[in-house]
Write a structure and sequence with these properties.
The complex is a heterodimer of chains A (166) and B (190).
Chain A: H1 9-17, H2 24-32, H3 34-51, H4 62-106, H5 108-116, H6 120-132, H7 137-165
Helix pairs in contact in A: 1-3, 2-3, 4-7, 5-7
Chain B: H1 2-6, H2 28-50, H3 53-68, H4 77-99, H5 117-131, H6 135-145, H7 151-158, H8 164-182
The chains are: A mainly alpha (166), B mainly alpha (190).
């Protein structure tokens, strides 16, 4: 194999790329230097391939490309304009989740007590008390429980919306 | 603007782009002129890289769309042509990565080929031989020996070090010479 690069090779390749491979000086050198001959053959072949015609193929319409590029630019601009809103959605969700966790931690003892004493009869009595406006410890427990559930449902709805958008 | 330019692959972001103070997008007229001048040559390049007319069409559109999305600091024709070929090289490399082994796909010739049987056979032989090179080798050989692109720019287009380009080119040329010899396509055999 021809592992060395001849010093003359860069200038010979330039000559070959310009179509001057039949110049006497080039031909003389190629006769003695197999490494250069190999390289020049490859370059001449590339040039001949580039010269083979592809004129018969109809190019895509320039107007369509222009229109497509404008459309892509508009979409990109819209995407960039909507990016802060997207970030706000995520921030909202994160804030909601953080408040739920904070709320649960803060009211942990009350919530566990309420959950452990939960029964259908008690739910009916809470409902009656809240509609008649009666204030009691039971009613505040009910508000606590339903508040947590409501907050959790809001967060789930937010996550669902985000996933649906994606 | 800077963000928009950055959406182009790193290798293509250059001194022509948004970092220059007077960088502007091409107007429709400038684009039409550029397309008329270089569209055919670029399509020929992409067709020889992909060996598929539909892919070449897609990549041509993609390359011009990328160019139109990039603010440019120059309107110099030679620079724009070199830049366009670099974008196209990147687009075709992205295309091969997406498609995996793109060469498994059937070749589709340009429609309505109106040339002689000899010319068609020659083109077919050439296309088949060129397809046996790796995509990166095809890009290298074309940019270096057909477009005359500088090694520094080839390196940017391919995402390699400029110092590696001569070695890669040397290997690609040898591989091509070997293929030509093997297929009896080198001048010595004819």
């Amino acid at each position: 194999m021809l592992d060395r690069i001849c010093d003359k090779q860069p200038s010979l390749l330039e000559a070959a790329a310009a179509g001057h491979e039949t110049d006497p000086a080039v031909v003389d050198h190629l006769a003695e230097c197999p490494a250069c001959r190999e390289a020049v053959e490859a370059v001449c072949w590339m040039r001949r391939m580039a010269e083979t015609t592809t004129e018969s193929h109809a190019l895509p319409n320039a107007d369509v490309i222009w229109w497509k590029a404008q459309l892509l630019r508009r979409w990109e601009a819209e995407r960039r304009a909507a990016a802060p809103i997207e970030r706000m959605h995520k921030a909202e969700l994160f804030a909601g989740l953080a408040s739920l966790v904070g709320f649960v931690v803060w009211q942990w003892s009350g919530l566990t007590r309420t959950l452990s004493s939960l029964s259908p009869a008690r739910l009916v009595s809470w409902s009656a008390q809240t509609t008649t406006g009666g204030a009691s410890g039971d009613a505040s427990s009910a508000v606590l429980l339903f508040g947590s559930l409501f907050l959790g449902a809001m967060i789930l709805a937010g996550v669902h919306r985000m996933l649906a958008d994606k | 603007m800077v963000e928009q330019a950055a959406t182009i692959r790193n290798g293509v972001v250059s001194e022509l782009e948004a970092s220059a103070p007077a960088a502007t997008l091409l107007s429709e007229r400038e684009f039409q002129d550029l397309y008329r001048l270089h569209g055919r040559a670029l399509w020929g390049y992409l067709y020889r890289l992909t060996n598929n007319a539909a892919d070449a069409d897609d990549l041509l559109q993609d390359s011009f769309c990328r160019l139109l999305a990039t603010p440019l600091a120059t309107r110099d024709d030679a620079q724009l042509r070199a830049y366009l070929f670099r974008i196209a090289s990147n687009a075709s490399i992205d295309h091969w990565r997406r498609a995996g082994r793109a060469d498994r796909r059937a070749a589709s010739p340009p429609e309505a080929a109106a040339d002689t049987a000899d010319a068609a056979a020659l083109r077919h032989d050439m296309a088949r031989t060129f397809r046996e090179l790796k995509p990166q080798e095809r890009v290298l050989l074309w940019l270096a020996h057909v477009e005359g692109t500088e090694h520094r720019e080839i390196a940017q287009a391919l995402g390699v070090k400029a110092a590696s380009v001569p070695v890669m080119l040397f290997r690609a040329r040898r591989k091509l010479a070997g293929l030509l010899k093997q297929k009896g396509l080198d001048p010595g055999e004819r």
